[in-house]
């Protein structure tokens, strides 16, 4: 009897303890979850408030325009030079000779548009018939001086990268050894491990580009592990890989864009335009060619052209948890300059040459499209918006018939679907 009562009491006590432990555990877990949610919410709010405060501390973008836009500073400088001219020509002992050539901006550009002090300028007296003398000087000590730190005071913001692959004859072959002008060359920024993306492009719209005699190359960085054998084989097979030895990473996309600028200006000068694309973009070569025809007709009066899906008055992200966070130390102004979305835009070759020269002297920004916008700002070129460069896959599916380029958000299968759908639409229209 006592044994059974003891066992019953022990069972009841243990049951009650387990019940209370379970209930308190549930309450504790619920309370803990709520606390975690509250703490997370407070953290997000604090970060957003910090982002707002950091945005308020940013410098108005108009000051960036005044600081970086070349034309206003050049005009001011040239006015100062002209205002001094009478003082140099009022000497009655000597006649006033007109200038046939007067490169008035050489020192101004070398001094980062008047913001730096030059250590010296070299003046060489030469006879007009001494062309050989000048050629030898340019090829010898003048070249060394340009490469030295004394003469090149506008030091590059970017490290020098070595080419791993540099196909120098792609455009020469397309233009029959530079005897003909090319409509354009297409530069596709591609991640080094995106072999599938490149193969889909090769079998779809890239083949039509070649039919239109528009050469295409892929811009790549390097593997972090250093083994580049698969890219070596790909280049040997296709011959359209441009690659340097910087690590291929999202934050290094601007290095990839700079590489494209320099490669195009050096090895494809006979092209009228450079078309820049990402490897997750679909392109319609026929519509692109129509755009290029129209833009070529404008080159005489408008040699510097930059066309794409343009963002104006866009602001940097100031919240820490954003993938696109930008600190005030990295970028102190309130707004980005007008820039074309990096995935697809068209640039005239005249502008590409200037951008390639200017790129080394603009501080690095990991967003390559904003970097291009800053180059355009410094060169006083306004990007032009065109709705046919589409960033929404849904919009592209609906308006595929008029899309020049479409973003597929990293999906090579969508590129293939859009290509096949356009071909089917063309067949039905012709039948």
Automatic annotation (TrEMBL):
Keyword set, alphabetical order: Glycoprotein, Glycosyltransferase, Golgi apparatus, Membrane, Signal-anchor, Transferase, Transmembrane, Transmembrane helix
Pfam family, one: Galactosyl_T
GO MF annotations in UniProt: hexosyltransferase activity
Primary localization: Golgi
Compartmental location: Golgi apparatus membrane
BP GO terms, sorted: protein O-linked glycosylation
Annotated EC: 2.4.1.-
Protein name: Hexosyltransferase
Species assigned in the record: Schistocephalus solidus
């Amino acid at each position: 009897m006592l044994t059974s009562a003891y066992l019953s009491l022990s069972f009841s006590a243990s049951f009650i303890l387990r019940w209370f432990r379970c209930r308190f555990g549930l309450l504790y877990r619920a309370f803990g979850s709520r606390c975690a949610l509250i703490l997370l919410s407070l953290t997000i709010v604090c970060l957003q408030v910090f982002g707002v405060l950091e945005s308020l501390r940013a410098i108005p973008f108009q000051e960036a325009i005044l600081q970086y836009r070349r034309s206003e500073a050049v005009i001011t400088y040239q006015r100062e030079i002209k205002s001094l001219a009478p003082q140099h020509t009022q000497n009655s002992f000597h006649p006033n000779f007109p200038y046939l050539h007067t490169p008035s901006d050489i020192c101004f550009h070398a001094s980062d548009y008047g913001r730096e002090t030059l250590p010296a300028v070299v003046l060489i007296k030469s006879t007009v018939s001494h062309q050989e003398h000048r050629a030898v000087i340019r090829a010898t000590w003048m070249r060394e001086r340009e490469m030295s730190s004394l003469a090149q005071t506008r030091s590059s913001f970017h490290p020098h990268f070595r080419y791993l692959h540099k196909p120098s004859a792609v455009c020469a072959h397309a233009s029959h050894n530079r005897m003909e002008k090319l409509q354009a060359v297409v530069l596709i920024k591609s991640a080094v491990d995106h072999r599938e993306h490149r193969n889909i492009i090769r079998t779809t719209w890239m083949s039509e580009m070649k039919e239109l005699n528009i050469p295409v190359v892929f811009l790549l960085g390097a593997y972090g592990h250093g083994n580049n054998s698969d890219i070596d084989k790909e280049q040997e097979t296709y011959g359209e890989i441009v690659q340097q030895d910087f690590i291929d990473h999202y934050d290094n996309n601007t290095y990839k864009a700079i590489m494209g600028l320099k490669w195009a200006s050096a090895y494809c000068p006979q092209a009228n335009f450079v078309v820049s694309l990402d490897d997750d973009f679909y392109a319609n070569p026929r519509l692109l060619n129509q755009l290029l025809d129209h833009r070529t007709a404008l080159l005489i009066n408008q040699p510097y052209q930059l066309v794409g899906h343009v963002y104006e008055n866009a602001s940097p992200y100031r919240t820490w948890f954003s993938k696109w966070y930008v600190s005030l130390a990295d970028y102190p102004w309130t707004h980005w300059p007008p820039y074309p979305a990096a995935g697809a835009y068209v640039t005239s070759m005249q502008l590409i040459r200037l951008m390639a020269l200017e790129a080394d002297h603009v501080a690095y920004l990991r967003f390559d499209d904003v970097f291009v916008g800053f180059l355009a700002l410094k060169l006083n070129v306004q990007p032009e918006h065109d709705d046919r460069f589409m960033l929404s896959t849904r919009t592209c599916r609906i308006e595929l018939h008029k899309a020049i380029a479409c973003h597929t958000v990293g999906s090579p299968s969508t590129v293939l679907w859009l290509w096949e759908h356009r071909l089917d639409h063309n067949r039905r229209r012709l039948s």
